[in-house]
Amino acid sequence: MMTAFKDATSLITEMPLVRPEHPDISGARYVLLQRFPYMVFYTVVEKDIVIVAVEYATRNYVERVTRRTEKAR
């Protein structure tokens, strides 16, 4: 799983604004891990990339990630 996480963070680092914004979480972008049902949520603050959560893709994560994204801004 660590390799999948490293691959995801590499994608985020290379082109952070290319990933889609989550439709239910303002300001949070995300990438799915390869072969695992997890999503990495992040936001871009000025020139910094802030990973706000890694969540299981099928759980109710919207409220938790929304709070963390708002705190990161």
Give a nutshell description of this structure.
The protein is α+β, with helices and mostly antiparallel strands and about 70 residues long. Helix content is about 35%, strand content about 30%.
Describe this entry's structure for a reader:
The protein is α+β, with helices and mostly antiparallel strands. It has helices at 2-14, 62-72, and strands at 29-32, 38-45, 48-56. It has a 3-stranded antiparallel β-sheet, with helices on both faces. Strand 2 (38-45) and strand 3 (48-56) form a beta hairpin. It is globular, with a radius of gyration of 11 Å. The chain starts with a helix and ends with a helix.
The low-confidence runs, each spanning 5 or more residues with pLDDT under 50, are none
How are helices and strands ordered from N to C?
HEEEH
Overall average pLDDT: 91
Class inferred from helices and paired strands: alpha+beta
Give the C-alpha Rg. 11 Å
Share of β-strand residues? 25-35%
The general outline is: globular
Proportion of helical residues:
25-40%
What is the number of beta strands?
3
Task: List the strand order in the largest sheet.
Answer: 1-2-3
Taking the sheet with the most strands, its summary is: 3 strands, antiparallel
> How many distinct helices?
2
CA(first)-CA(last) distance: 28 Å
